[in-house]
Design a protein that fits this description.
- It holds the Pfam family PhzC-PhzF.
- This protein is α+β, with helices and mostly antiparallel strands and 300 residues long.
- The chain contains six helices and 18 strands.
- It folds into two domains: 5-120 and 288-298, Diaminopimelate Epimerase, Chain A, domain 1 (Roll); 123-272, Diaminopimelate Epimerase, Chain A, domain 1 (Roll), CATH 3.10.310.
- Helices cover 19% and strands 44% of the residues.
- The protein has an 18-stranded mixed sheet that branches.
- A hairpin with a 2-residue loop joins β4 (60-67) and β5.
- The relative contact order is 0.19.
Length: 300
């Protein structure tokens, strides 16, 4: 019996040019494969994420998202990259579509060279204390003198610890040797939490906040990620909680420089209410997608 093969695409997401940003493999026609086969394919590509989409009627598609450490309910660069690939292959033709994933429905919009996801807040816990921050800082080779603000847990389908530091400390940080939940005792969250977003607000301009970020997810076999849309979405909640981001506020994240894969993530928020009672209602994260490869992979 001949071996079966599946079509795939490789794209770079949150990249201003090819061979930058975060790599993504999108594998087609795998909807009936068992979980073990999906994980085996993911580990064969060995990118931070691989997706397995199934188009549905109209402007919808279902998507399973895997890291080499297992399946996750949501991720940013897989959402943008998968939608872009399906549209490029003619399986989606609308300017706005919906991704159905473990975290629910995620809106995706195409505009010029950008793809933008839209997600609702799900977790926001904090601020967390100095002792908690000290444990995390020690794990990445820093100390309390490097801290620059309150620590929050926040996410829109995948939750991260958002740890603010001074800008020069971002590059000095090292990859933690242990999963985040092994470093410090974390409060309970509704969504999975195993990532650390180390970030610095470098500047405030008329265009918004300029942010330098590094994201570590060793618990999911992603020691450091070059571009993390889910962390960028959760960061909006932390920035708003710190009083740094208001309604229609925008932010630009530079990530991946330390890995030689420079990435740019563009974020904005929508806020309901005024003053102390204001809450974030939607978070939007956008970036460019560039095609890199197309081929076939053997079914495990």
């Amino acid at each position: 019996m001949p071996d079966a093969f599946l079509d795939y695409d490789v794209v770079d997401v949150f990249a201003e040019s090819p061979f930058a940003g975060n790599q993504l493999a999108v594998v087609h026609g795998a909807g009936d494969l068992p979980d073990a086969a999906l994980l085996a394919i993911t580990r064969e590509f060995n990118f931070s994420e691989t997706t397995f989409p199934v188009p549905v009627d109209g402007g919808r598609y279902r998507c399973r998202i895997y890291t080499p450490g297992g399946e996750i309910p949501f991720a940013g660069h897989p959402t943008l990259g998968t939608a872009w690939v399906l549209r490029d292959r003619g399986r989606l033709d609308q300017a706005s579509v919906v991704q159905e994933c473990g975290a629910g429905e995620i809106g995706v919009r195409f505009e010029d060279d950008l793809v933008e996801l839209s997600a609702a807040p799900r977790d926001r816990v904090g601020p967390l204390g100095e002792a908690f921050a000290a444990q995390l800082l020690e794990a990445v080779g820093l100390d309390l003198s490097d801290a620059d603000g309150e620590v929050w847990l926040a996410g829109t389908g995948l939750t991260f610890v958002h740890l603010p530091v001074h800008d020069e400390a971002v590059a000095r940080a090292r990859v933690p040797a242990r999963a985040v939940r092994e470093i410090a005792r974390l409060p309970e969250t509704g969504d999975p939490l195993d990532g650390l977003n180390l970030y610095a607000v470098r500047d405030r301009t008329t265009d918004g906040l300029d942010v330098h970020s590094r994201v570590f997810v060793p618990g999911l076999s992603v020691p450091e990620d070059p571009a993390t849309g889910s962390a960028a979405a959760g960061l909006a909640l932390a920035l708003h909680a710190r009083g740094l981001l208001e309604d229609a506020g925008r932010y630009r994240i530079s990530q991946g420089t330390e890995l030689g894969r420079p990435s740019v993530l563009l974020g904005r928020v929508e806020v309901d209410g005024d003053g102390a009672g204001a809450t974030v209602s939607r978070v939007h994260v956008a970036g460019e997608v560039h095609p890199i490869a197309r081929g076939q992979i053997r079914v495990p």
